[in-house]
Amino acid sequence: MPNIKSAIKRTKQIEKRRAQRASQKSDLRTAMKNFEKAIASNDLELAKSTLLVAVKKLDKAATKGLIHKNAANRQKSRLMKKLNAAANA
User: Fold this and answer.
1) How confident is the model over 22-48, as a mean pLDDT?
2) How confident is the model at residue 82 (pLDDT cuts 50, 70, 90)?
3) In percent, how much of the chain has pLDDT > 70?
4) Minimal CB count within 10 Å: which of 3, 11, 68, 72?
5) Under CATH, which architecture does the 5-88 domain have?
6) Domain residue ranges of the chain, discontinuous segments joined by +
7) Which residue, among 25, 28, 26, has the nearest Cα to 53 in the 3D structure?
8) Among residues 75, 82, 70, 83, which one has the least CA distance to residue 55?
9) Is 41 in a helix, a strand, or coil?
């Protein structure tokens, strides 16, 4: 535990940010899982709507620095690929 006042404040800020980021990442993973469930159930309309939500959350996470922009693009690409495969099947 730090003794210096600024270090104590820093520790509090870090813990607060860590909790916020964990929550945001959890929301992101939940959105992606909802899309996966929609694809698994062969419901294309639901899949399209959940894909839009997942893409929006990925873009927002990349903009805020929660995940790297290339990681967000890679995930979006994989989700789109799954949707296209389900639509063509």
Assistant:
1) 96
2) very high
3) 100
4) 3
5) Up-down Bundle (1.20)
6) 5-88
7) 28
8) 75
9) coil
